[in-house]
Fold:
Amino acid sequence: MLNIGCLVVNEDYDRLKSSIVENKLPHFTYTLTVTGAPEGGTSTTLKLYVLELVSSNLSIGFTLPPDKEIDKDLEIIFTTQPTADVKMPEDLKLICEFSDEKKDTQYAGENLEKLEYIGYSLEKFYETKKASFYLFDYEGITKL
Structure:
């Protein structure tokens, strides 16, 4: 089982802490594939995995390195920054089954541009739903 870590703000962490029961929480998942070529270049593909936690008003999107895959189950470990009251917050584990749901879109640009475009688009979309959106680049696109 693949596991990933997510650092969230204290308010989202508190909502998750009160919602997660026995490492479970209702969720919806999908894979968003963004394809397109930069001007004069060859087409590339970016895969963004998205997890919606509607009851916690939280969604995350993340990329993975090419050698990593989500089998079916995914373990997500949430944490937050320490505060004056809580020196070291406990890790919150969530185990979810990742669906085969797929969505596709087009964007002409390098993978970094695709990541910025889709991250901004999803952030604005979830903002209308009054949900927080976090984007994690585990593929390392932002380092290229």
